[in-house]
Predict the 3D structure of the following.
Amino acid sequence: MNIRKATSADMPRVLELIQELALFEKEPDAVVITVDDLIRDGFGAQPLFEVIVAEVNQVIVGMALYYNRYSTWKGKTIHLEDLIVSKEHRGTGAGSALYNQIMHIAKEQGVKRVEWVVLNWNTPAIEFYKKSGATVLEDWYTVQLDENGINNIIK
């Protein structure tokens, strides 16, 4: 297995994995981004995110998309937006390899925290994260305002 930084040429496969994750998370119609969006936003003059991929026999079987954030409590942090391994390659160590590489990147960057969101029904992921030493915050809620909500506020 090979873990490497993704290139713009990898974005069609990355989008497929994002769509697979949306299906797993019971939101199959939620993905509206395109390959062009991923290329523009991840590989332009000021990239908004980075992606690493897991390959087996030069086929991408998983990916992790992350970006830097800033915490008023901790300083520079990394937000792990998505980590997905294709269904047929789960249990092969690809997810652990991607997860570990994110932590290596965090250490190299000197960040004070890596954070992400996990669905409360995704018990295998929660157990994996807890076993790795991560704290699952059960008393915080994720808050989002979608495009319609934004437009309603700024009428």
Remarks:
- The chain has five helices and five strands.
- Helices lie at 11-24, 35-43, 94-109, 123-131, 147-153.
- The mean pLDDT is 96.
